[in-house]
Amino acid sequence: MYTQAMDIPGGPKAVAPGSPEEAAFNARIARDEKIEPRDWMPEAYRKTLVRQISQHAHSEVVGMLPEGNWITRAPSLKRKAILMAKVQDEGGHGLYLYAAAETLGVSRDDLIDALHAGKAKYSSIFNYAALSWADMGAIGWLVDGAAIMNQIPLCRCSYGPYARAMIRICKEESFHQRQGFDIMLALCRGTPAQKQMAQDALDRWWWPVVQMFGPPDADSVHSGATMAWGIKRISNDDLRQKFIDATVPQAELLGLTIPDPHLKWNGERGHYDIGPIDWDEFWRAVGGDGPCSRERIATRVRAQEEGAWVREAALAHARKQAARARKAA
Ligand code: BYC
Q1: Ligand 1 lined by 89 (C-beta under 6 Å)
Q2: Could you give the CA distance from residue 201 to residue 209 in angstroms, rounded to a whole number?
Q3: For a pLDDT cut of 90, what percent of the chain falls above it?
Q4: Which of 136, 170, 175, 222 to mutate to test the pocket of ligand 1 (most atoms within 8 A of CB)?
Q5: Is residue 143 a contact partner of residue 212, using CB atoms and an 8 Å limit?
Q6: What pLDDT is stored for residue 10 in this prediction?
Q7: pLDDT tens for residues 256-267?
Q8: What pairs with residue 159 in β-bridges?
């Protein structure tokens, strides 16, 4: 599989700025070539990739939790099977991404320990509770919709293993988005109480999803470097705008109202204008003080502890297989 962990002995060498290695790296970035794990790369490039890819991996596995809570309460066998498949996909995305991060010389155990110690970030959006079945629709439609918007440009990221992982992830995310929209459509075509459930879910998820694209460009500390390196291709504000422009007509089709009294088409700009975003709320969620932040980490830590026997059994099995193969040889 294309994101298998690769060993890079010793890691990248430290090279003085302006060195021939750095000039060659910059030229490759300018030619839009992929950087691969064994290629020379500036330490800051490697570090920023580890930061972004590991945060992304953590978001996928923490993102399994709000939906995982609803598997036993899905309204039909079909919806249950679809939701289970989606949550399993997210676990898979986490695995591709941890494997991509490992190609940069970090260990998965260390990354997961940092998440469980509350030192690593994951997407702010997963600090919110999923209160009703309509939230499964809203998460798929809006959260996965925002994720696709953010992740399609990452398929062209300059770091090969991340870009290749993103291609597969985006294919799966588009199924996730469509299943969410399908849940919303079923509710909106249902009874008035079901439509109200869909509206209530939109009311609660809208602003956290708008925040999910990250701080405004003026406050985005990493964008300058990551855009120059071809990691990020489109800025936080531009992606947010694209998402809003694409989503407003979808809400109209559903017959739902976006909870923003300032939302208005601006013919001059050719975009929707929106009301002010509550950035204090965003930073509280990012800083571990969101409505479900503590519960999410506690659940992850418990899952890791309760799964220890599975990891031990898998390792014992692998050791036995290896011993058998050695004997046969
Ligand atoms: N939440 O300089 P900035 C999914 C942090 S999973 C938390 O703009 P950057 C799904 C940022 O890390 C989707 N923190 O940063 C899964 C930085 O802090 P540090 C997850 C955030 O990296 C299951 C600081 O704020 N997607 O879709 O240039 C079910 C300054 O920000 C957030 C990805 O991870 C946030 N929302 O841009 C359903 C995509 N935003 O690191 C769905 C990959 C910002 O200095 N990541 N921060 O401590 C990215 O594209 C970029 O990292 C971001 C942020 C756009 C998120």
Answers
A1: no
A2: 12
A3: 93
A4: 222
A5: yes
A6: 44
A7: 999 999 999 999
A8: 35
